[in-house]
Amino acid sequence: MSEYYDDRRVNGKPQIFEKSITAALNAGVTTVATITDQPCAIEGIVIHADTGAHADMTTCAVKGGGSQVITFIGTDLATEANLDTADDQVAWTGLVRLAAAKTIVIDLQGSGANAADLTVVVRFRACADGGYLV
């Protein structure tokens, strides 16, 4: 007999967190996600352009951890030129452990306050039962 168990916060189960980013393109550091309750292993991050050109954007690096010490997607990749058409994407894959209460942020840098139209997707796994992103 097989048992169906649907608890997304189970240690080791792959999970996806998605956040729409609509802040001003010169807003600076904007929180994407906060690790809650237990540590999580971050396995991949994608910045997806939902629409075309973001005229005010210069860069939108994604960083994490205390004082943003981990660079997931740097300013060399997260540029307007790489995200100027709908469905353009830049991504990072690897493995980084973030403790509970640590954050993942996007650093919106640009010349004006037009709104971003981006989605950030994070693939992660709880390192202990109860870990998730909000």
Explain this structure.
With 134 residues, the chain is mainly β. The chain has a single domain (14-128), classed as Sandwich (Jelly Rolls), CATH 2.60.120. 0% of the residues lie in helices and 51% in strands. The chain has a five-stranded antiparallel sheet, with no helix packed on it. It starts with 13 loop residues before the first strand and ends with a strand. The model has no long low-confidence stretch (mean pLDDT 93).
Question: Can I get a quick summary?
Answer:
With about 130 residues, the chain is mainly beta. Helices cover about 0% and strands about 50% of the residues.
Largest sheet: 5 strands, antiparallel
* Number of structural units classed as domains: 1
The secondary structure category is mainly beta
Number of helices: 0
CATH topology description: Jelly Rolls
Query: Unreliable stretches, pLDDT < 50, 5 or more residues?
Result: none
Give a count of the beta strands, DSSP E runs of length 2 or more. 9
Strand content: over 45%
Helix-strand pattern: EEEEEEEEE
Order of strands across the widest beta sheet?
Answer: 5-4-7-2-9
- How far apart the termini lie comes to 34 Å
Helix content: under 10%
Looking at the overall shape, the CATH architecture is Sandwich
Quote the average pLDDT: 93
Cα-atom Rg, whole angstroms?
A: 16 Å
